[in-house]
Amino acid sequence: MEILSQQDFSKILNFVQGLYSTDRLQNFSSYISTAISNLIQADISGYCTIDFMQHQFVGGVLFPAVPVSAEVMNQYFYEHPHQVNYLKTRDCRAYKISDFLTEKQLHRREGLYQKFLRPMNMEDQMTLVIPRVNSMTVDGVTLFSSQRSFTERDRLILNLLLPHLMQAQKTGHILTQIQQENQQLHNSLNAAGTIVISDNGDVQLMTQKAENYLQQYFFCNYSGQSLPEHLQQWVKYQRSVHNSNSSVPEPHLPMKIEQDGKQLVVRFIADPINNQHILILEEQKSPSLTIESLEYLGLSKREAEVLFWVAMGKENSEIAKILGVSTVTIRKHLEHTYQKLNVKTRSAAVVTALQKLGILNCR
Description:
Elements: H1 6-19, H2 22-26, H3 28-35, E1 44-51, E2 56-63, H4 70-75, H5 81-89, E3 95-96, H6 103-107, H7 110-117, E4 124-131, E5 137-145, H8 152-181, H9 185-190, E6 193-198, E7 203-206, H10 208-218, H11 229-242, E8 255-259, E9 262-271, E10 276-285, H12 291-295, H13 301-311, H14 316-323, H15 327-341, H16 346-356
Antiparallel strand pairs: 1-2, 1-5, 3-4, 4-5, 6-7, 6-10, 8-9, 9-10
């Protein structure tokens, strides 16, 4: 197991704290492509978006900027082992080209090497996938090196950042959607459930929709000065996470409150420049557990099927009959699932999966 230094943890902390601020969320891809180079040494760092339904790259940012042919990348889309590996496994963790291809094998690839990497004078690439919920479009943090020099330390850092990047990505998308509804920020905030609080916790602004959500989900009348006690405690915790000096802080997970088949989702955005914080309140349909949703946790289709039936309370023998396989096969799939979710038992696997999918909220 690779061990990170105190300096590594300090750099990770600075990266994560910057990640959740409003200006960084609005320029998510640019921030990632430049700031990641402070954590991992690479000749080129970038952020890209891939549409697996259309089999193509649909956008990206590289730092420093270098000319890259999108036509070549799309023409030889499945010559790249990263795309093939993700489609096969749904594994979002960081992988290098050198994990799959020897130097000799890479150099024989006409599109990937001769037309893509070689013109940039690059010999290796490492990519971390950031999945989008219920979508075949994914984002990726990608690093290039002129040598096969990426280390297990580099891989570990990217994997530690994954939950933060996933949460920040979701929050950034919500913020962008809100702002796109109106050109002026004030109008867009009023169209949503938004609360602005000062650094000491006082409410500075609350839209009508946010006030309605508080009355509906917290069963309280807004006093005009303070938040409901439960929400205050959650905000206090989020602020402590953001200002934490610990090695790798917790992700800014949203608060979720279930009611009558719907849920209120509250997201925390830090705005240190203005000494304030923003809460975005959004009402959604309560999510349900599906086999497809489990695949987005990096499980294979069969592993997702097995875990789904475990969550439905089925024993291994019952699942074996449903899927038409042996109980030995079911146990093997569960072992692989435990490894991917970093758990040791059936119940822990189900709870962890529900938490990662936002169906079960323990905070």
